[in-house]
Amino acid sequence: MNITATSLLLLLASSTEVFGDTIFYVTKYEAKADGNTDITQNLRFNFITNSMVKDITSRDSKQFQMNLLGCKNLTFYNVGISAPEVSINTDGIHIGRSSGFNITNSTVETGDDCVSIGDGSEQINIQSVTCGPGYGISVGSLGKCPNEEPVVGISVKNCTFTPRMA
């Protein structure tokens, strides 16, 4: 699912009544590891401003579970993300060239980074997040490309980390 260039978005997946899955399984949408029909990211947020994503769960994506690009003042609250511990390149949330991103009261269980922060990201606040098993929170893959922007103002508070077993 791609969400692009939206202001004042509130994405919820909660209800007192259940009308269907509030969990997005890529295999229900014919994702296969055949190189042609892969669905490699469950949710992609491009250029979202002044918005909140609350009470959703993403499971078993290949590669990034949720990918943010060019977002400003976006908050994730009570977000659940999971992928098998043995899966590779399954970052929970990847943040690129975004500012004012907050994630609070959430759980990310993947075989890779809980949160990965790419170039041009600033004022990223990660609080009360349970990460693991996996590699935790990373500022990574910087310096590979020319003209990369610096990463500034990362805050991590009251988080719990469980290391990967293998």
What does this structure look like?
It comes from Vitis vinifera. The protein is mainly beta and 166 residues long. It has one domain (2-6, 38-163). Helix content is 0%, strand content 48%. It has no helices and 16 strands. The chain has strands at 2-4, 10-12, 23-25, 43-46, 49-54, 57-59, 66-69, 72-77, 80-82, 93-96, 99-109, 115-117, 122-134, 137-139, 152-157, 160-163. It is globular and about 35 Å long. The N and C termini lie far apart (31 Å).
Features of this protein?
single chain, 166 residues, mainly beta, ten-stranded parallel sheet, six-stranded parallel sheet, 0% helix, 48% strand, globular
- Helical amount among residues, as a percent range? under 10%
Overall structural class, as computed from helix and strand content, comes to mainly beta
What's the gyration radius in Å?
15 Å
Q: How would you characterize the largest beta sheet?
A: 10 strands, parallel
Quick one: overall form?
Answer: globular
First-residue to last-residue Cα separation: 31 Å
Taken as a percent bin, the fraction of beta residues is: over 45%
Overall pLDDT confidence: 80
SSE order, one letter for each helix or strand:
EEEEEEEEEEEEEEEE
Q: Count the strands?
A: 16
Number of separate structural domains: 1
Number of helices: 0
Would you identify the regions where 5 or more consecutive residues have pLDDT less than 50? 7-21
Subcellular location: Secreted, Cell wall
InterPro entries: Glyco_hydro_28 (IPR000743), Pectin_lyas_fold (IPR012334), Pectin_lyase_fold/virulence (IPR011050)
Pfam families: Glyco_hydro_28
Organism: Vitis vinifera (Grape)
